[in-house]
Amino acid sequence: MATLTGGPRVLLRQLRETMAEPLGSQDRLNKIVDLIADNMRADVCSFYVLRDDGALELFATHGLKAEAVHMTTLRLGEGLVGLIAAEAEPLSLDNAPAHPSFAYRPETGEDPFYAFLGVPVLRAGQTLGVLVVQNKDRRVFGEDEVEAMLTTATILAEMIATSEFDSLIKPGSDIDLRRPRTFDGLALAEGIALGQVVLHDPRVVVNNFIADDIDAEKQRLDLALEKMRVSIDVMLDHGDMQPSSDHREILETYRMFANDRGWVGRLMEAIDNGLSAEAAVERVQNDTRARMLRQTDPYIRDRLHDLDDLANRLLRVLTGNADGLGKELPDNAILVARNMGPAELLEYDRTKLRGIVLEEGGSTSHVAIVARSLGVVAVGQAESIVSMSEEGDDIIVDGATGTVHLRPTPDVEQTYVEKVKLSAKRRAHYLALRDLPSVTRDGVKITLLHNSGLVADLPMLNETGAEGVGLFRTELQFMIASKLPRLNEQVELYRDALRIAGDRPVVFRLLDIGGDKVVPYMRSAAEENPAMGWRSLRLALDRPGLLRTQVRALLMAAEGKPMKILVPMVTEAFEFRQARMVVQKEIDRLKRAGETVPTKVELGAMIEVPSLLFELDQLLPEADFVSIGSNDLIQFLTAADRANPRVSKNYDPIALPRLRALRHIVDAARRYNVPLTMCGELAGKPLEALALMAIGMNRLSMGPSSIGPVKEMILGLELEPIRKSVAAALADGSDGVAMRDLLKEWVDRQNLPV
């Protein structure tokens, strides 16, 4: 039996020194694997990282071919490395190639190696990677070597958790820790909460892994345990926790765990093996979580929350961070935790707490019971959300569906903002206007429609009284998914949207990605100006398989009913013809297959590229309808990035030059008798909506929360005199007229609620 060259403490001290050196991430990893190989007399030491897509990537090696680093991958459960990652258990073999799970990767050059020891790299019980040593000769790795590898793995886990690790991520890698994420969890307490991430247990970094004085470490642990138990007793004596309290029984169980002799005994045993008190807690917590997370009994898994709560609290006491409990919260705090015991939840300021998101929480867990009693929005089983979150990240918690949006895209955030706004105090006022026809005082009918993108916001059609959906952004489904949605998944989404809308029309815009709408699984080369780059229809025509699949899904979702499809970012009329050919081919394909096709398919073009204004005579005879995307159109007309406030604020979208361009489209659509809808942000602002109506635009699509204010303005409006006034201003050769000021004068004159 082989032993470590200098014992486990020597290796740990060397690793600690390496972590403190001013090295880059890759150089530090390379030195770590070199040290481990040297101390363990191993011919090979390799470190694999579990990527976001479920593959294990070789990140560093001593002894295998250097060119295999960042090239060799194994799926979770594949090979010995994949087996260790899946089971979160060490594996020691004297003849690795003979194991049934052995998977050979020729590019690594690992042919001559037989002895094998691999350990999982765990963080809070979750597998982050695998650390491996190998030897040419058959040998048995000793218990001290296994222990040293497990402790080393803990150090590597901390390294992965730091922002420094991001420097190893190559452009185009599947590891993208900062992209928007959506988690489909379990609804624990209903409601909707928008806010900022507050990590319930900000990671306590354990720097001291070695027990220089074992007796002193045990004494530190005893003192910390006593301090923690006292804090629990104090909480039980709190006014909310009197015998009549519903929470009392839960906290009594919690205190029982805090005094469990078996748990304390394992901590002491870890210190006896040479670990510091903090490292002992870290090791016992990791091992316990790794085992309990793989249990199928929901009761056992729920008890893990209480044990984890204790370990986290104990770590903070040992590291002097105990005062972090119950820390000051932002006004819109949403707690994110791997788990949370009821005691810690009750320590937070409930006046600022908006929601809770847990990785494991079940509906019968103690913290879920407490959350419901406090009226706090809660979602559980949001897998791996802690490792993907950072303090202060924007987050949305939908307690009705169990959905959590981390770092939501602006469109997703706006959707939920609209939902929250509708539930505010003016909701009742606008609800009273729901069934009134949207007609001005002088008899002009204005069609009001929703902009949408999530099935979750479609039920608001019933609350606002909108006549349909003028723009359904299909790209949101692609942006929040971790992989390309399949045909059946797309069909299901579109079918649900049509079902909820009922008899009201829904206009589905084809996939509009690229630019600021990043899809993680469809990466392309970086562009200096992505808003004017490979995006939207340009991308779709270059990827015909993607376009045809989406069109097929839309046609199938109609189930024989009419279907409206909007083609985004048309630059020239011939592109619209190409899109129409794709639609027709898919219709013919479904007919040949005996599938039901829509009774009528209307294909529209989105006008948002200025060059199309000079091809309206070619486009409009071929389009069933058109829609204006004011966001991009105004941006391109002014050459001002709408996301850059330094320039975008200088160009009023309803100033004379932009309003003339919009009226040009209105006039052309009227000549060809083609329905025209405004789908951009302009339509949802009462004064801007007034400008659009004044130039003859009678179909406006907007966010749901804008329907009420715009409709209220319409009902009090006499439009014809304003149209004449605006027409005169547009015809005037000078640009001296300030359109916004002109409209405000009419607002005041007619006493309009703008």
Automatic annotation (TrEMBL):
GO CC annotation: cytoplasm
Domain GAF: 24-170
E.C. number: 2.7.3.9
Chief place of localization: cytoplasm
Substrates-to-products reaction catalysed: L-histidyl-[protein] + phosphoenolpyruvate = N(pros)-phospho-L-histidyl-[protein] + pyruvate
Molecular-function GO terms, alphabetical: kinase activity; metal ion binding; phosphoenolpyruvate-protein phosphotransferase activity
GO annotation, biological process: phosphoenolpyruvate-dependent sugar phosphotransferase system
Keywords associated with the record: Cytoplasm, Kinase, Magnesium, Metal-binding, Phosphotransferase system, Sugar transport, Transferase, Transport
Localisation per UniProt entry: Cytoplasm
Cofactor(s) annotated in UniProt: Mg(2+)
Annotated SMART domains: GAF
Magnesium recorded as keyword: yes
Pfam families in the cross-refs: GAF, PEP-utilisers_N, PEP-utilizers, PEP-utilizers_C
PANTHER family in the record: PHOSPHOENOLPYRUVATE-PROTEIN PHOSPHOTRANSFERASE
NCBIfam families reported for this sequence: PTS_I_fam
Family, similarity comment: Belongs to the PEP-utilizing enzyme family.
Name under which the protein is recorded: phosphoenolpyruvate--protein phosphotransferase
Upper taxonomic lineage: Bacteria, Pseudomonadati, Pseudomonadota, Alphaproteobacteria, Hyphomicrobiales
